[in-house]
Structure to design on (596 residues):
């Protein structure tokens, strides 16, 4: 049978690669409890019949508003095997954003995780007459909400009277049918609903699996939002089909601890996780005394040198290999142990990963395969592999997908992963998808001579100064973030006479330096107001400016006491900075930097 739908993908995984821990979740004792493939299939069948009893039919839409958890996957598989399409919604969204999405796609039912999300829907429900049923994974106090357990029980009773066949499991959907509407977080305006077909997802799974080695001996730890296409395809559908067990982290905050318990062999993540691990390791080493600091810096130097030689295909001397064995035992083996000690590789996507961080993980024996894609491309367009890995690039283009660079540098893609279009938005679809099937990504990029793709910036993020100079902010921001005292940074200068930046300090490093320097302060406000602190950041900017063209140098900056956050709408759910939101939120400080 040729696989073209997600239910077919699930059916083959259950029957050809069964396992006792297809999905795992943390129990009350802190240990992860697995659910077998057979039991997963039974629950999906029961949930499908339960949804059918509520009136959900092929062609309907059902929303899922929940954090990552096992029940999310059950709901997804049951919805799709009915021939319906699902609409995942980020649980971090505010009620008004959720209201927009629901009014746009009009689902007949919605799954929620618990009281908080059920409360959001309850506050909106009077204006959402198309939603007939709300089902909560947890038992909630909100009225008119059905418990997930009850729906499973209803479906289980129906299953006893009406045993399901493989045809029921596969369901009525065809490969070209709508599978999911994923609303892009966007950096401005209302989100757009990206319509992805079953075959969009399946083709991406099969193409990626042809390049990345994942199988029944693997186990993954899932913590990125399943509402996002990257985790949906790479951390869920791909791993499920490959026979890899999937464990759900208790929360984003517990990922480090959960890695030690689950001991994953493969993980999918956005760059922020790697940045945080890198910062924690650096902070611990630099605060551990002069000897520990000396060994750590030695380890980084040796690792970086070996990384550069191996990436260039050059020979590594015996003396360097000898040093590598020592620093690995003293430094890097401890880092690997913190990941559970079994990790074969990470996959990174969603945003660019800083080269120096990728090189550090490479040196530590923790391979990070960076890839590239968008929601509209299901998502993977290119990815580094074990055989072809060039740090700094986003890898070669995946099989059966075409990529070309337009005259203005924009990356265009064509292939089976390209979306059906934007839901209810034919004009906006036509703006990015031409008659020949080419999707205009909005990213600026280039190929090197060996076929590796590189992203240089977002087309819409390009800064055009008052003097008419075009400046890509991301490379500048990535260069600035090499400074360990900088946690987050946003470069600004569009329609302005010169470039400035807003800096959120890495307060762990800054406070350590301030104590060693004998400075006194009470709050972060006090600390960043000190002249000596500002002088320190100015010196860092001066060093960075030496490597920039004169028109792109940073002429002024402000230090901010608070991180950019999802909650304040300053970051997308994949932790990309919303530049316009930042510029609006800090307009007063920005204007002051240009008037000073």
């Amino acid at each position: 049978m040729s696989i073209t739908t997600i239910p077919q993908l699930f059916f083959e995984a259950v029957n050809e690669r069964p396992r006792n821990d297809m999905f795992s979740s943390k129990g009350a004792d802190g240990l992860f409890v697995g659910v077998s493939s057979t039991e997963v299939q039974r629950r999906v069948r029961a949930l499908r019949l339960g949804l059918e009893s509520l009136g959900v039919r092929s062609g309907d839409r059902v929303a899922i508003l929940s954090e990552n958890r096992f029940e999310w996957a059950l709901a997804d598989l049951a919805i799709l095997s009915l021939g319906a399409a699902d609409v995942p919604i980020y649980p971090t969204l505010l009620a008004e954003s959720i209201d927009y999405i629901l009014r746009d796609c009009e689902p007949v039912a919605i799954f929620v995780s618990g009281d908080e999300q059920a409360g959001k829907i309850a506050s909106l429900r009077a204006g959402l007459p198309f939603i007939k049923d709300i089902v909560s994974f947890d038992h909630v106090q909100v009225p008119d909400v059905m418990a997930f357990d009850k729906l499973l029980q209803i479906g289980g009773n129906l299953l006893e009277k009406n045993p399901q066949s493989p045809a029921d499991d596969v369901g009525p959907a065809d490969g070209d049918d709508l599978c999911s509407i994923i609303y892009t977080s966007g950096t401005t305006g209302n989100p757009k609903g990206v319509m992805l077909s079953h075959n969009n997802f399946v083709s991406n799974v099969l193409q990626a699996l042809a390049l990345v080695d994942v199988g029944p001996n693997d186990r993954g730890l899932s913590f990125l939002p399943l509402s996002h296409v990257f985790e949906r395809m790479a951390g869920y559908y791909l791993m499920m089909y490959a026979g890899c067990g999937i464990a759900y982290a208790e929360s984003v905050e517990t990922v480090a601890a959960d890695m030690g318990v689950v001991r994953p062999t493969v993980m999918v993540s956005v760059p922020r996780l790697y940045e945080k691990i890198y910062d924690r390791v650096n902070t611990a080493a630099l605060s551990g005394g002069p000897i520990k600091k000396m060994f750590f810096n030695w380890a980084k130097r040796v690792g970086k040198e070996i990384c550069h030689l191996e990436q260039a295909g050059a020979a590594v001397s015996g003396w360097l290999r000898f040093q590598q064995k020592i620093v690995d035992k003293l430094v890097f083996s401890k880092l690997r142990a913190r990941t559970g000690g079994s990790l074969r590789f990470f996959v990174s996507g969603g945003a660019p990963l800083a080269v120096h961080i990728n090189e550090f993980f490479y040196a530590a024996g923790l391979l990070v395969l960076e890839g590239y894609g968008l929601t509209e491309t299901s998502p993977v367009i290119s990815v580094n592999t074990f055989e072809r890995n060039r740090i700094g690039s986003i890898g070669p283009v995946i099989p059966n997908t075409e990529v070309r660079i337009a005259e203005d540098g924009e990356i265009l893609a064509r292939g089976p992963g390209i979306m059906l279009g934007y839901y209810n938005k034919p004009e906006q679809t036509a703006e990015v998808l031409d008659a020949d099937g080419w999707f205009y990504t909005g990213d600026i990029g280039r190929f090197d001579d060996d076929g590796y793709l590189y992203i240089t910036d977002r087309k819409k993020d390009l800064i055009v100064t008052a003097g008419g100079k075009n400046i890509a902010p991301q490379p500048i921001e990535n260069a600035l973030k090499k400074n360990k005292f900088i946690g987050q940074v946003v470069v600004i200068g569009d329609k302005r006479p010169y470039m400035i930046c807003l800096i959120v300090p890495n307060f762990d490093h800054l406070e350590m330096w301030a104590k060693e320097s004998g400075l006194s302060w009470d709050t972060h406000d006090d600390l960043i107001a000190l002249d000596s602190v500002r002088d320190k950041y100015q010196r860092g900017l001066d060093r960075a400016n030496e490597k920039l063209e004169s028109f792109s140098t940073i002429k002024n900056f402000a230090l901010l006491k608070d991180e950019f956050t999802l909650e304040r709408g300053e970051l997308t759910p994949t932790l990309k900075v919303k530049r316009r939101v930042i510029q609006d939120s800090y307009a007063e400080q920005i204007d002051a930097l240009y008037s000073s």
